[in-house]
What we know:
The protein has helices spanning 3-6, 35-45, 61-64, 77-81, 96-107, 120-124, 128-134, 159-166, 186-209, 219-225, 228-237, 274-281, 284-288, 294-297, 299-306, 315-325, 335-339, 342-346, 388-395, 400-409; strands spanning 26-30, 49-54, 71-72, 75-76, 86-91, 111-114, 139-144, 214-218, 258-261, 266-269, 329-331, 350-355, 359-364, 412-413. By secondary structure, the chain is an alpha/beta fold.
Amino acid sequence: MTNSDKGSDKGSDKGSDKKGALAELRVIDATQMLAGPIAGTRLGDLGADVIKVEPPASGEFNRTRGFEDQQSNGEMTTFLAVNRNKRSLAIDLKSADGLEVIYELVKKSDVFLQNFRHGTADRLGIGYQDLKKINPRIIYCSISGYGSVGPYRDRPGQDLIVQGYSGSMFSVGAAGDDPTPSALWGADVMTGYQAVIGILAAVESRHHTGVGQHVEVDMLSVVMDCQLQEIVTYLNAGPMPRRLEERSAHGSIPAPYGVYKTKDAWLTLAMVPLPILGEILNDDWLKTLAHYNDGHKYRNEVYKKIRNSFKDKTTAEWIEICDKAGAWCGPVYNYEQLMNDKHIKETNYIVEQSQFRGGSAKTVRPPIKMDQTPPSIRRGAPALGEHTEEILGKLLQMKPEKISQLINSGAVAKTKEQA
C-alpha cells in the first residue's frame, strides 16, 4: 500500500526511533493459539502495523486459556508471549456490520492472516476470493494443520497431533520407549515462521506484479520439511532412525550424541569425534574408532561404555575439559538457570514490553538483528479491544456517532476501562 492509502495512523508506538523493515506493511491478524499469532508477532517485530481481530466477548483462545491460568498484567502469560506489537480490534465477524468493518480495513491493508478450520473463513465471508475482490493487492495467508485439500483437511491441526503424524517421535530415546514428543511446540512455531517467509516472498512478488496472492502453509508439511535429512535418507536408502538398547538423543546420529549425568547436574555432548572423546576419558578403545560411521556401528557399545563416565566431575568441570579438547558440549538448564546464565544477561535476551494494564511484562527479545532497520518491541500485547476506537476513527475515518452505533450493536467492542 502507499502512504496515502494507509493514512498516517499507526498508533502510539514506543521503542526504537528507527523504523522497522516492514514499517509500510499493514497486517490483519485473525489468528489464535500459537502458529498464527507468532507469525503476526514476528511481522510486528519487523515493523509491520499488525491489527489483531478477535471476538468481542472473550477474545482469542489464549486470552482465557493459559498454563495453569498463570497471569501477568491482567492477561494470560501465554497471550502476552505471542501478541506483542499488535493493536486489538474486538469485532463480531458474524455480524453484517462487523463484516463491513473488516472489508473497509482490507482496503487499507496488505496482508490478511488466518488459521481458521478449513471452510470457516469462506463461510464467514472472509475467504481469499471474497477479500481479493475488495483488494486485489491483498496477500492472504492461510495456516492449517494439513492443507486445504486431501482427506485430512478438516482434522484439527494441533502441535502434538501433527508430531504424531510426522514420524519424529521414534527418533529419540531407546528401543521399547514410548513415542517421545518434543516440548518445544516446534510444529506450531516453525509453521508460523514459514508463514512469514511465504508472506514476505509474496510481498516481493507484488512489487513486480502489482497483485497479491494466496499463501498456504500447513503444519504437517512443515514438520516433514524439518526432517528432510531423515526422510530423504529413508526414501532413497531405506533405513529409518533406529532406537537401540541404549538411549540416545537422535536415532540417526552417531554416538556420543546425548545427555549424561555429571556429579552435580547434566552434560550434553554433540558431534564429538570418538578419538577426541577417548582422549577426554582416557579410553584406548574409543581412540581407535576414527571413522565417522564407527559412532553408528558401535552405538550401543559406546553408550554403554560412557553412560556413567561423567559422574566424577561437575558439569562446569567437564565443559572446561571438553572445550579445551574441541569437543562440542553444554549444560542442561531449567528456566531459572537459563535466566542466570552470563551470556543471556550480557547480551540482553530478556527485555520489557509495555502493557495497557500493570505497566510492563518481561519477554524474550526478537531473535533477528538488523543494523539499519532493527526489529523492536514497540508495544506489548494489547488488551481486548484496546485499539478499536483508534482504528475505526483514525484509520477508517469513521465519525464518533458511527463508532458508538457499532459498539452499541455489539458489532465491535472496546476495553472495559474505556467503556
